[in-house]
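Subgroup meeting minutes
Present: P.N., E.W., G.H.
Scribe: E.W.

1. P.N. recapped why we're keeping a running log of single-chain structure predictions: easier to compare across weeks, and new members can see raw inputs and outputs side by side.
2. G.H. added today's entry (494 aa).
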Amino acid sequence: MADPLRYDPSYDFSDFQESNSDSPLPGVQVDTQLADISTAIADHRNAIMDVRRADGALANGSVGPDQLADSLVIGFTLRGAWDEDVDYSTGDGVSYGSALYKCREAHTSSSGHEPGVDTDLWEFLITLSTLSIDDESVTPDKLTSGDEAAFQAKIGTGAQLGALIDALTGKTTPVDADELGIADSAASYASKKLTFANLATWIGTKLGGLVAAATSKSTPVDADSLLLSDSAAGNATKKVTLTNFAVWASGKLGSWISGATAKTTPVSTDSLVISDSEASGVSKKLTFAYLKVWIGYAIGDMIAAQSAKSTPVNADSIAISDSADSDATKKVTLTNLWANFLKAKADALYLTGPANSLGRLKNNGSGTLTYESAEDDLGTISTTSGTGTKTLNVTLTGYRRLRIIINAHSQNGGTFTLSQNSQVILTATGAGDVFSGLIEIDLASGLAFFIGNKTAGSLAVTCGWQSGLSTASTSISFVLSDTGDGGSIKVYAI
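Output recorded in log:
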């Protein structure tokens, strides 16, 4: 900057006082002089701050080549690290160990005459391990100000700086607090430091940008690789193939599932993650509703593919859906299936028919079995004590057999008579207590048989039937005549 302003008084207050002893000093002139004094003080303060720090030491970067005395100039040509069988000239500089040396006398290097050993050939200059520069003291404007050639003669060229760095002790494992020197492009390339922690953040951001700008690959293969930070090797950057990543991801997925909160009662809208084999193994979700449908088909396919067993035994089992336990899948043995379910159903069907009647199970066409009687009740005729005649008309079309159940009381010589179309079928006479019987008639052949019973007395029973009675007959009449104590018949057709 320019030299600070010098304060020169522009008004003589002494002359004013001599001429105006009773008047105060003129305010305008006082203010002007005070302002000039303040400006001069500020200029001098700024000039001092250019070369002095707050702690009283010289300001960083305030000393350049022009300020160094000739006795302090170490100018030399840096030749890099010292080595044997090299021709060195007077003024050449080398690094050896952790120090810099200057060649005193031209010679060819050899073992036993290394810098630090042969002081006649080499002059010690500086130990690099203790070399330090104040923070932010080296900036581009300071490095290039003044006589650049003279400055470089004192501190060395860029190549020489590289050699100095090359001669430093290496550090194999930097930590976050370690620092690099950078030129800050956002601050006119001022020299600044950058910690490895901030460098890692910057690299992460840049890496994200590089990945985003990279060409996409729609179908990765097992041999493709991802970039990772290996926590087991000091977070060294390494690659991992998609094959190995898939193995890791599978293990992690298992751990995530194992550590997840369990749900005891899934619903149809819950989902599972699946690998879609029809879409190159892409991960997709599958609801429990569709899973249930698939399981149903899968079970059907599994059953169809099983070996058949022609003779199942009681210990064999079948799978059921337990409605009493939220439709949980369970097994039931054939023993329990029959004893605790089918038998009760069958018994209920068979017990539907009347006692002592014939019957059959019938499928209604929808898979439901019902009981159907094998005989039709055509009617009953009966008489009371004394003399009486009753008639029962029946139609025989479509039937094959008749069954007539007889119950009669005949006492004191009474007569019980059953006739069919004026032909006597059965007559019971004589003294007796109770008479009963069964007549079974085949309508096609006319054959008949009778089974009778009497409990006491000398009851005489005769039975006959009209031959040639056809199933095509539309109707016949049964006439019951009784001169005893009363009787009845019931007619069934089969």
